[in-house]
Amino acid sequence: MHCPFCRHADSRVVDSRTSDDGASIRRRRQCPECNRRFTTIETASLSVVKRSGVTEPFSREKIVNGVRKACQGRPVNEDDLAVLAQRVEETIRASGSAELDAYEIGLAILGPLRELDEVAYLRFASVYQAFDSLEDFESAITSLRVDREEREAAAGRAAAEAADDAATDREAAPQP
Q: What does the UniProt record say this protein does (predicted)?
């Protein structure tokens, strides 16, 4: 690491700490030539291997742009897209691989997009998974309906349990 002050070709690491999110390392360095200190931040780079075999650096902006097209006319704002892109990147980094296929990134997008907006999910999935027929759409819609019904049933059970717990607490409380 070159010293930014005197351009000496070497420096010594004085302290290393991981960032709060764990995605980067902050290093405090000291130049042996001029004795000045400076900080570097190191992150692991991710590469995407496209279908054509071309490798390019991972970009959150490409995820946002691709998903933005599927979200046109939907009640999804830029902050929602940024959070989705961050979740996708965290999922990809958690895999531990430095090089990923574009297909794997698309799979990582589908889950968070499904939670964000079902219509945008269908739009994205229809292109990404190359829906060929109405049956493909019907299958995806049926899957979405089943998931929604399961979520609603679970929420209803949780609400009923909370009401039962509250009633039990009221019965067990001493009366004045």
A: Negatively regulates transcription of bacterial ribonucleotide reductase nrd genes and operons by binding to NrdR-boxes.
